[in-house]
Write a structure and sequence with these properties.
Blueprint: H1 3-10, H2 29-42, H3 44-72, H4 89-119, H5 127-136, H6 138-158, H7 160-169, H8 173-180, H9 184-195, H10 199-222, H11 228-262
């Protein structure tokens, strides 16, 4: 039997090219939601723990702002008609802006850590290691967030459509930093490159997950504050919807990346 005949005989038993297994199209919304749920379940305790850290840090910042406001006499007591003390405002504003900056850094740290927790789910890294990894890219993460915000804001000034286009183009910039190590404006360019050719599909999939968050926010706003229902909705948002949307977006990014790699 010649070589060509052998190849034909054994061809059906030989492994096919890995490219044939690469995805040719975006996962459906249903697939993304299903796979996101699987990832969430597999990393449930680590995600809940990390979100708990975020919640505690938020309470700390809010408590400090409230305490400083009381200490400087700048809190409005509307129920009693008490007026603010003008002399306390300068110190309060400076400290408030400082704590706001600290809060931004802390929230960015949590967000970066969460992406690492999702990215390295196969290794099952814990909260401590994810926080360490998130800290290592914190400045780059914040800078990319600033660049994306600046471009989306600039596009929105032109009209709502350019703002939406920019938001979709650069939606995966932070994931590019965490997953590929690409920093600064190059991360934005990489995100745009991944979206190219799939804009409508990406827009629709991001719209779905954003709509879920908007509905949850609307429900929270529609009920009275400090009621059991409002607290439950807030906790669901913090411990489920926020991390779930990050998982969903990360899986969409990885889907795009695999498609582009196989092209």
């Amino acid at each position: 039997m010649n070589q060509e005949s052998q190849n034909q005989s054994f061809g059906s038993f030989m492994p096919q090219s890995t490219q044939e297994y690469a995805p040719k199209k975006l996962m459906s919304v249903g697939e993304l939601l299903s796979k996101s749920w699987e990832v969430y379940k597999s990393r449930f305790w680590s995600i809940v723990g990390l979100m708990g850290v975020s919640l505690l840090l938020s309470f700390l910042i809010i408590g400090l702002i409230s305490g400083i406001g009381v200490g400087t006499g700048t809190i409005f007591l509307l129920e009693t008609g008490t007026k603010t003390t003008p002399e306390g405002w300068p110190a309060f504003i400076i400290i408030f802006l400082f704590l706001l900056l600290v809060g931004t850094f802390l929230q960015s740290w949590i967000n970066a850590s969460l992406i690492y927790l999702i990215k390295e789910r196969g290794q099952k890294i814990g909260i401590k290691k994810s926080l360490k990894k998130g800290w290592s890219v914190l400045l780059s993460f914040i800078w990319i967030g600033f660049l994306v915000g600046l471009r989306v804001f600039g596009g929105s000034l032109l009209f709502i459509i350019p703002g939406i286009i920019f938001a979709v183009w650069f939606a995966f910039s932070e994931y590019v930093l965490i997953d590929e190590g690409i920093k600064g404006s190059k991360a934005l360019s990489r995100s745009k490159e991944l979206v190219k050719g799939f804009f409508e599909g990406v827009l629709w999939r991001l719209f779905i997950i954003a709509a879920i968050g908007i509905i949850a926010g609307f429900l929270q706003e529609s009920v009275e504050e400090q009621t059991a229902l409002s607290i439950i909705i807030a906790l669901i948002t913090i411990f489920f919807l926020n991390p779930f949307s990050t998982i969903y977006s990360f899986l969409l990014y990885k889907n795009l990346k695999r498609i582009k790699t196989s092209m």
